[in-house]
Fold this sequence. Notes:
127 residues, alpha/beta, 4-stranded mixed β-sheet, VOC_core, Glyas_Fos-R_dOase_dom, Glyas_Bleomycin-R_OHBP_Dase, VOC family protein
Amino acid sequence: MRIYITSVFVDDQAKALRFYTEVLGFQKKHDIPLGEARWLTVVSPQEPDGTELLLEPEGHPAARPYKEALAADGIPVTSFDVDDIAAEHERLRGLGVRFTQEPTKMGPVTTAVLDDTCGNLIQLVQQ
């Protein structure tokens, strides 16, 4: 068994696609219209056939309160692995990304947390 897809709820799919591709550097994999929303996924350019991230509209009534509660408590909705967290932090800051946690050593890993502009906190991890 392998993880095929995971998702983050976003308040605006077009804005999310811009942030996740143009800023974070993921590639669009699927963009299928489904009425008002789209089946919109991105993947790592390093693993184009790897796990997909669904940029899922927050249309369900529980989605927005869930996101707001996690963000209010400073809890990231997901984590992305990076090879060099210091370099990635600098690159993203240069693009105007807001970090809620600067790179911090936590035992065997270093983590940082950023705001994805779509209502989510995302954790970067260097193992």
